[in-house]
Amino acid sequence: MANVRLENITRRYQNVTAIENISFKIPDGEFWVLVGPSGCGKSTIMRTIAGLETATSGNLYIGDNLVNNIPARQRDVAMVFQNYALYPHMTVAENLAFGLRMRNVDAAKIKERVEIVARSLSIDHLLNRKPKQLSGGQQQRVALGRAIAREPKVFLLDEPLSNLDAQLRDDTRAELKQLHQRLGITTVYVTHDQVEAMTLADKIVVLNGGKIQQIGDPQSIYAKPANRMVATFLGNPAMNILPAIYANESFQVGSQSLACPPSIHKRLQAKEGQAFDLGIRPENIEIFTPQTAEEDDFNRDIWALEKVPLDVEVKVVEPLGREILIRASLPALGAETTVQLQVPAGVRLRPGDRLTVQLDFDRLFIFDPSTGEALYP
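Given the sequence above, the corresponding structure tokens read:
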């Protein structure tokens, strides 16, 4: 096993820059996830670590070794691709043993290693089958097993779960996490699925446009995103973004006015007429009712509680079982500006219903609308 260090890695294709000045260090044994929208550069970083791409500039280290000019086969990394890439004419046992045979490992050692890996992945009963006789999940385990059997320094996983159905993806994700906890191999995992990123990672690297937006553990990034892109990408349902204008010590959101609490005003040093993007997660919005008003003593100074009312119109109701996702629009802001909130399954709402909701300003995020930079908290 080994750490992985990237120093100012840039990769250009003629006039296109795929990744630019990428720098981070993955400590030995940690599980890092590269996440971002399609085309953000995450797979290019993965392939550069593997040796399948050559950096235009910058340095890449595996352990203490500079590997810029070392070919892929000599880097001692194992990669699992999205399509698994199993040899169809080989049995499961032969697929698992392939990498070891290419390294001229003793036959007895290969047999022992294959059996150990197969048991650890619960595929020991499939050793005599060929890939076409396996389900998608079983093929995925064989691909993982082939990489694990080599006992590489670094494990690279490029969207390995994307071809699985939802239930199998959830099950395999849990198995992957347990497997890493047991083996402790330094792992780099690429995905566009933020749920996979949040649940698997020791650290997340959020990418966009070939550049790093933020690096941190899942909870830290979720609680304090560096910018609007990170805030809206991580979280399901996504964070609501409400365009606002600061005027008369209030945020003007469409035709409605939301009083700006002193703590936020002091931090922002807002000027009259200044534009902001207000961010609020769906779980931090609740329907205002007389009961909630009584419980919160709503008639007190509202900024002692920092819960702010906002009028919306229900557009879409999406039952999710234990809860309901509501998509609502804000008056005078047009159909494109929506607010999402989650309500208990027993709440009965229909499209066209008008609601007053409460925004928890203790959980408010504020971004610069031109740069996307987080201004608050």
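The domain at 4-231 is CATH 3.40.50.300 (Rossmann fold). Try to locate this feature in the token string yourself.
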